[in-house]
Write a structure and sequence with these properties.
heterodimer; A: 374 residues; mainly alpha; 3-stranded antiparallel beta sheet; B: 640 residues; alpha+beta; Penicillin-binding protein 2a (Domain 2); Beta-lactamase; 3 domains; 5-stranded mixed beta sheet; 5-stranded antiparallel beta sheet; elongated
């Protein structure tokens, strides 16, 4: 009996594999393969540094995702706070001993690769808050103590990230945190009041921004005010996307990127290159692929028995959505330029690591969707 | 149980709120798709254009200038293939080594090396540096032989202006050189077609007809990257060579003029008396315009600039001289026209004339005795013309002189260095000098001294208009789109009318009241050259085919003092600057005249000794070329 009980709780490896979400898995694989081709195009149609490294990272992080998925969701629930604190410690470490590059200090050298802890924080904050709202009684959600605690959970990492400085990632962390607050049942009026307060204090916030950040906002409002300087990126990005047309210029034929008019084409502006070469049809196709991924994650959330898994899936689905929206809005000239990668597509190890871990936890929730967590 | 209830309620809240988020997500994604649609579908054309503007860059190449040919089609300003040496710095492995090698191969100066290093610092690494603009063939071959050792060096063949007759046409054609900033700004066409290394007309025809000669740029389209580096060539669009310009000049005669003046300061002009075609227009000394093409060296420039004979001045158009006795045909004509004198009118020359206590000398101290118009012209008697001028008055003389083209630009605005000259009258003096006219001034005006200033080309035109029977001609140096053949022009004049070459209309352009008077003057000029005691009798040609009529002139450049008059010095004994200018005007052949000329030898002494003998040699050639020129009358029409 005892043994039977154990078996009913613990799923065999075979069952784990069977229970994986194959639609999500196939979508992620598709996206990964696509990202390698796009990276090959950014290298000018050759297998160079970026293509090689991107491939290696995928080859390491994809199995890592499966590995993460094979841990019970309960395990991730139990370690959520610890993971959050470890990453806070990493952020503190980085703020003292981190590697500086182009004016900001965000990275730590792990010999094999360079880690950006703030990227991992995007996942950790969802885990931490999901656990908090899983454990708290619904009646206490809007109590003063709980609001203080959850706001602290969000604000502490943001302080470190914003001082690196990295506005883009801090906004994404904040939004990932806030969405859990929203899902967890915090009163709508709080959100409305905070939003109004935010609007009122916006001029003060702007006065605290660094000059280059102010310039980005001005440039967003009017890219033509300095077409060769601050407005250059956004103008060139719009030219590339717009000139792609319905069908695109064809794989490896994007003149804007091939002739180096596109800045940051490996990272933040990877969608621009994709859109130039594959056009409107390709771009919408990519959005559909992302939509499938988001939809599958939400779906896994709805079938999860535990609120932790549910909150994590919904939160993570929203986070992915926000990454995509912020990145696309930026390259399409709908938002000011803030550094934010496109999940999986953009070159960058930490972002991919965080995304893959996120997918892994979602898959773990799928495998263990019947798991109750006390 | 309570706990479970709470859990279920929580799940409900989460699900409800997730639904709201889901709806928001759909809206945002639709918004992004809409933005994509607007950029990629609606504004696709606009962004495609912008993308092409980004990646396609045009390189203009210097246009090829049109040729300038003489009347017979010989190229007098053409284009030559030149061999240049370019370095492309980004292809060079060791720049210093390369410079040392080139320095040895081409004997480059240290200054040049420093200039190359400076250019290298200024230009982008893929922009070529021009090491040498004009390599000789042997240098070019040498470079090609060592090319394996000269990585990054590019021997280039290009086109450059060339003047095959060197200094023969300098003052007519001018020359080309690199434009300065002002010249680029002033001319829109140059501005539009300018490329570094391009040359524009700086003087003469080259400058005046710049817009016709310039040609259009060849255009190379390249795909470039964001840093402006050429990636590949897309298209080569050929440029059009500038228009061909045909001049009225005859190279053989022009060359002969240069030889006859033989580096002496002076000028020769030859004109067709019916069509106004300028057959030769030579200002001496000249200089080689080819020197300016690749930047003239400081030494060569100083040599030209400091030459006391002033080669830079176009004496034909900008040289102002007292006409001396060459004005006498006009004085005689004016007096005849105004019926002040007739052929029988005589004056007794005693060698001088007194007027209000002032003495006016004839060139012949002993005097000519009683002289009529013919004799006075023949022997150039000053006393006769003092008296005629006195009777005529300067104002009436001025009217005739201006009618015949004195005091006006001959070629209009074709050459911006052409001078107007001056033929005075009483009003002019009052307005410009603020003093009343003095009769003594009329006297010296009558022998071509005093205020009168003429250019050699004016004297040539004046002679032409006397020679053609007294009709206005419109001098021109460019064969335009409506050329008039010599026969048409002559025939129209004989019928008393004249072709206006601009509109091909017949106009009344008679310059006389009575054509007989012109004939009288022509006969007097004939006597001066072809009868005994004529001032240019020694320079006559008896063969009627070449026989010409003319008038000498000797223009004083300073007042002759009494002492000097008594000394009667030989030419060599007078300082160069104080020697008289020698002048000669003539037309021929005397029967059926066709050509007029004017000759000036600065500080050459007397007209009969220094200028008239040149005419004798020149007329033979001019008349000999007459038939050849006539055969060219099947005009090649060029629209400019």
């Amino acid at each position: 009996m005892f043994q039977h009980d154990r078996l009913s709780n613990e799923i065999t490896l075979f069952q784990k594999i069977k229970n994986l979400d194959y639609i999500l898995l196939i979508s992620v694989i598709l996206l990964s393969v696509l990202s390698i081709f796009v990276m090959y195009s950014t290298d000018g149609g050759e297998i160079l540094f970026h293509t090689k490294n991107h491939f290696v990272k995928l080859a390491v992080f994809f199995p890592l995702m499966i590995f993460v998925a094979f841990f019970n969701i309960k395990f991730w629930h139990n370690f959520s706070y610890i993971i959050y604190f470890i990453i806070i410690l990493l952020l503190i470490y980085v703020s003292f001993f981190g590697i500086k590059s182009s004016g900001s200090q965000r990275w730590m050298d792990l010999y094999l690769f360079v880690l950006q802890p703030s990227e991992l924080m995007k996942i950790a904050i969802i885990m931490c808050l999901a656990k908090y709202f899983h454990r708290i009684k619904i009646e206490n959600v809007n109590s003063f103590t709980s609001i203080t605690i959850v706001l602290s959970i969000i604000i502490i990492p943001i302080i470190f990230v914003i001082s690196q400085p990295d506005l883009g990632t801090s906004i994404l962390i904040a939004l990932s945190g806030l969405i859990i607050l929203w899902l967890g049942g915090m009163k709508i009026k709080y959100f409305i009041y905070s939003f109004i307060t935010f609007l009122i204090s916006l001029p003060f916030i702007i006065s605290f921004l660094k000059p280059y950040q102010k310039l980005r906002i001005l440039t967003f409002l009017d890219p033509d005010r300095d077409p060769l300087g601050a407005g250059y990126q956004i103008i060139q990005s719009k030219i590339a996307i717009g000139s792609g047309g319905l069908n695109g210029k064809g794989f490896l034929k994007g003149t804007q990127s091939y002739l180096d008019f596109l800045p940051e084409k490996h990272t933040d502006f990877i969608f621009t290159l994709f859109s130039e070469e594959f056009g409107f049809i390709g771009s919408v196709g990519l959005l559909i692929l992302y939509s499938i991924i988001i939809f599958r994650i939400v779906r896994i959330g709805t079938i999860s028995r535990s609120n932790f898994a549910r909150l994590f899936c919904f939160g993570y689905a929203f986070a992915i959505f926000i990454y995509i929206v912020v990145n696309l809005s930026m390259v399409l000239g709908l938002l000011p330029i803030v550094g934010s990668p496109l999940p999986i597509m953009s070159y960058g190890g930490s972002s991919m690591l965080a995304t893959m871990i996120g997918f892994g936890i979602v898959l773990s929730a799928k495998i263990n969707h019947k798991q109750m967590i006390a | 149980m309570i706990k479970s209830n709470s859990g279920i309620r929580k799940t409900d809240v989460i699900n409800r709120r997730m639904f709201i988020i889901g709806a928001a997500k759909v809206v945002v994604f639709v918004g992004i798709v809409a933005r994509l649609f607007s950029l990629q579908i609606n504004e696709n054309k606009k962004y495609l254009t912008l993308s092409d503007k980004n990646r396609i860059r045009e390189w203009k190449l210097p246009p090829t200038r049109g040729n300038i040919v003489d009347y017979f089609g010989n190229i007098i300003a053409g284009n030559l293939k030149v061999y240049q040496l370019h370095i492309i710095p980004e292809q060079v492995e060791n720049f210093n080594y390369l410079l040392v090698r080139l320095k040895n191969l081409l004997n480059l100066s240290d200054k040049r090396i420093a200039r190359i290093n400076k250019l290298k610092a200024e230009l982008k690494p893929w922009d070529s540096i021009i090491v040498s603009e004009n390599l000789s063939w042997s240098q070019f071959v040498k470079i090609n032989n060592y090319l394996y050792d000269l990585v990054g060096v590019k021997p280039v063949m290009t086109i450059s202006r060339n003047y095959p007759f060197n200094d023969v046409y300098t003052h007519v054609l001018g020359y080309v050189s690199q434009p300065n900033e002002q010249e680029i700004l002033e001319n829109e066409i140059i501005q539009e077609r300018f490329v570094p290394g391009m040359k524009i007309g700086k003087l003469g025809i080259e400058k005046r007809l710049e817009n016709h000669l310039i040609g259009t740029n060849a255009i190379q389209r390249y795909e470039v990257n964001a840093y402006g580096k050429r990636i590949n060539q897309l298209e080569h669009q050929k440029g059009e060579q500038g228009s061909k310009i045909r001049l009225t000049v005859d190279t053989e005669i022009q060359k002969a003029c240069g030889k006859l003046l033989n580096e002496k300061a002076g000028s020769i002009s030859v004109m067709d008396i019916y069509t106004g075609d300028i057959i030769a227009m030579y200002s001496s000394p000249s200089y080689n315009p080819n020197l300016f093409l690749f930047g003239i060296s400081q030494d060569e420039w100083q040599l030209i600039r400091n030459n006391p004979l002033k080669p830079l001045i176009n004496k034909t158009l900008s040289g102002l001289y007292s006409p001396g006795s060459t004005i006498k045909p006009i004085v005689a004509l004016s007096a005849l026209e105004n019926k002040v004198i007739d052929t029988k009118f005589k004056v007794k020359c005693t060698g001088k004339m007194e007027l209000y206590g002032q003495t006016f000398h004839c060139w012949k101290e002993k005097g000519h005795g009683w002289v009529s118009l013919k004799n006075a012209m023949k022997q150039s008697c000053d006393t006769y013309f003092y008296e005629v001028a006195r009777l005529l008055g300067v104002d009436r003389l001025n009217i005739t002189a201006e009618k015949f083209g004195l005091g006006k630009k001959v070629l209009g605005d074709y050459f911006d260095n052409e001078k107007k000259g001056l033929f005075p009258n009483t009003k002019w003096k009052k307005n410009n000098l603020g003093k009343g006219w003095v009769l003594g001034e009329t006297l010296i005006t009558g022998i071509g001294q005093g205020y009168t200033q003429t250019t050699p080309l004016q004297l040539c035109m004046m002679t032409a208009q006397i020679a053609n029977g007294g009709f206005a001609v419109k001098p021109k140096i460019i064969v335009d789109s409506n050329p008039i053949s010599y026969e048409d022009a002559k025939q129209s004049m004989e019928s008393g009318l004249l072709f206006d070459t601009d509109s091909v209309e017949l106009l009344d352009k008679k310059l006389f009241k009575n054509q007989k008077n012109i004939k009288i003057v022509q006969e007097a000029m004939f006597a001066s050259t072809n009868e005994r005691f004529g001032t240019s009798y020694k320079s006559r040609i008896d063969d009627p085919k070449y026989q010409f009529a003319g008038k000498t002139g000797t223009a004083q450049v300073k007042r002759i003092s009494k002492r000097e008059r008594e000394l009667d010095l030989e030419l060599e004994q007078i300082p160069y600057k104080d020697r008289d200018h020698a002048l000669y005007i003539a037309f021929g052949p005397y029967v059926n005249p066709r050509y007029a000329l004017s000759i000036i030898v600065e500080h050459g002494g007397s007209g009969s000794k220094a200028a008239a003998p040149i005419a004798k040699k020149l007329f033979k050639l001019i008349i000999d070329r007459h038939d050849l020129r006539n055969k060219q009358s099947n005009f090649e029409r060029i629209t400019i």
